[in-house]
UniProtKB/TrEMBL annotation:
Gene3D superfamilies per record: GTP cyclohydrolase II
Protein name: GTP cyclohydrolase-2
Residues holding Zn(2+): C217, C228, C230
The organism's taxonomic lineage, starting at the top: Bacteria, Pseudomonadati, Pseudomonadota, Gammaproteobacteria, Oceanospirillales
Gene from which the chain derives: ribA
Active site per database record: D289 (proton acceptor), R291 (nucleophile)
Protein residues bound to GTP: R212, L213, H214, S215, A216, Q233, E255, G256, R257, T277, T312, K317
GO biological process: riboflavin biosynthetic process
Pfam families recorded: GTP_cyclohydro2
Cofactors, names only: Zn(2+)
Domain GTP cyclohydrolase II residues, every copy: 166-331
């Protein structure tokens, strides 16, 4: 975890890191924030390639079975061209890409680091030429470059199951639930913190506990954005859990379905141009939902909760808890307001992601019909 944490910070600063693959070392760097590929080419002694996810390639008209692919870069490609390959909205026709090959463990590990760092999932990767390996080893020994094993890089997205730390807690009365206590948990790499809002006497309960898994949404939760229903769901969940006699709301640091705030804003811009939420994320190189709920399982285990009544419209949350050994005894729907601004977003979640929202959308449509 220590090496992964260091690698993520170096990558966010625009620095390259070395990924050990068992053969020739691989020098990797984030495309986001990169000014030129020439410095990476000079350092590695070989021409870099651009590594893209299958989601981004599908948006450009290329269907591949591998998780990612490596695209050799021509010498004349500038950073604007690379940016277009990584994030620009496709213009209808298939973009011609020659020389695509499945990404190896090192390249896939590079993309995992980008996603963990909440950057665009696009990486510049260059094999270290034999003539440059001594120079690279010297930089590693002097601490100028960090070396990371490909296997560790690939595990970056999964965190460290079972190693979540319960750090601090305090009573914080809420408007809808005065008997509330906030318990903060920190992931072992120190990058993310999550909060369990314990309402009433929910810890170590004998029966099913009302639980809400809520992913952080700065725009909706704090500012009341009309583009989503997150703020309504957050407040409704606290009120409902309190009405049920107590339970826990897990507030998870997974902004934008796990892609981070910067990428969520990029996706919003693409949605303004006509894409739905799923297609917008795919154009940026992400899947339908990048969130992972292992941390939620760890939080529930730390609170002594093994049976839950889950407040959710998302079948993936139910499956994730069950896979983690938490018994989901029942599910309760939890809706926010359906507005002109968020109806297209909610419809895409229902029709393309399988969320249980059709009843809420139908009721909203009926309410909008003129009486008569």
């Amino acid at each position: 975890m220590y090496h992964v944490e260091r690698a993520i910070f170096d990558i966010r600063r625009g620095l390259p890191v070395v990924i050990h693959t068992g053969s020739r070392p691989l020098l990797v760097q984030a495309l986001e924030g990169s000014d030129s590929v020439e410095a990476l080419a000079a350092l590695s002694g070989s021409r870099p390639a651009l590594v893209l996810t299958r989601h981004r390639l599908a948006a450009m008209g290329h269907s591949i079975s591998a998780e990612a692919a490596r695209l050799p870069l021509a010498a004349e490609m500038d950073t604007a061209t690379l940016h277009d390959l990584a994030v620009a909205k496709p213009h209808g026709e298939k973009q011609r890409l020659s020389g695509l090959s499945p990404a190896g463990p090192g390249e896939r590990g590079a993309l995992a680091l980008m996603r963990r760092a909440l950057l665009l999932p696009a990486a510049l990767c260059a094999d270290v030429d034999e003539a440059q390996q001594a120079a690279i080893e010297a930089k590693i020994s002097y601490g100028e470059l960090l070396r990371l094993d490909a296997g560790d890089a690939l595990k970056a997205l999964h965190g460290a199951p079972g190693m979540l730390k319960r750090v601090s807690e305090a009573d914080i009365p809420l408007e809808s639930a005065q008997a509330s206590r906030f318990v903060l948990f920190r992931e072992p790499d120190g990058l993310r913190e999550h909060v369990a809002v314990v309402i009433g006497a929910a810890e170590n309960a004998a029966g099913p506990v009302p639980i809400r898994l809520h992913s952080a949404c700065l725009t909706g939760d704090l500012f009341g954005s009309l583009r989503c229903d997150c703020g309504d769901q957050l407040r409704n969940a606290v009120a409902e859990i309190s009405a049920l006699g107590g339970g826990v709301l897990l507030y998870l640091a997974q902004e934008g379905r796990g892609i981070g705030l910067a990428n969520k804003l990029r996706a919003y811009t693409l949605q303004d141009a006509g894409l739905d939420t799923v297609d917008a994320d795919q154009v940026l190189g992400f899947g339908d939902d990048e969130r992972r709920y292992g941390v939620a399982v760890d939080m529930l285990n730390a609170l002594g909760i093994t049976q839950v009544q889950l407040l959710t419209n998302n079948p993936l949350k139910m499956a994730a808890l069950r896979d983690g050994g938490i018994e989901v005894v029942s599910r309760q729907a939890l809706y926010g307001s359906v507005t002109d601004q968020n109806q297209r977003y909610l419809t895409a979640k229902a029709n393309r992601s399988g969320h249980y929202l059709h009843d809420a959308l139908r009721d909203a449509l009926n309410d909008a019909q003129p009486n008569g």
